[in-house]
Amino acid sequence: MVDIVHTDDGLFGCAGLKGTVNFYPNGGTALQPGCSLRVTLQDVLEAIKTIFVEPLPKVFCSHRKSVAFYIKSINEKNLTAYKCPSSKSYAKMQCNDKNGIPFGEDTPPNASGNYYIKIIK
């Protein structure tokens, strides 16, 4: 099983289905909680200049949230993701609450499909 955590689709992340289980925290797109749209040209130039020294600078904030959220799944065992056909369906609360599975480390090995979860921090 390959589980993928999409936190930056359409910007630095890869859109589309990439794993057996695809998790989409907060819809899976930028802007993730704690990140800012206030990225200046200077931030981008600094990111390019320091990419080999600091691999995940501020400009990649939403992208690096996938790692932070997975770590959160190890430390907090109460994170449930819900199977849903799309982020629009999830936003409209049209997902079946009975299709919930543990997010991250404890994802069942037989799980497959797209799952959405709200993670605040």
TrEMBL record:
One BP term from GO: lipid catabolic process
GO molecular function annotation: lipase activity; serine hydrolase activity
Alphabetized UniProt keyword annotations: Secreted
InterPro entries the UniProt entry points to: AB_hydrolase_fold, Lipase, TAG_lipase
One annotated Gene Ontology cellular component of this protein: extracellular space
A Pfam family recorded for this sequence: Lipase
Domain Lipase: from-to ranges: 2-97
Domain of life: Eukaryota
Compartment(s) of residence: Secreted
Family recorded in the similarity comment: Belongs to the AB hydrolase superfamily. Lipase family.
The protein's name in its UniProt record: Lipase domain-containing protein
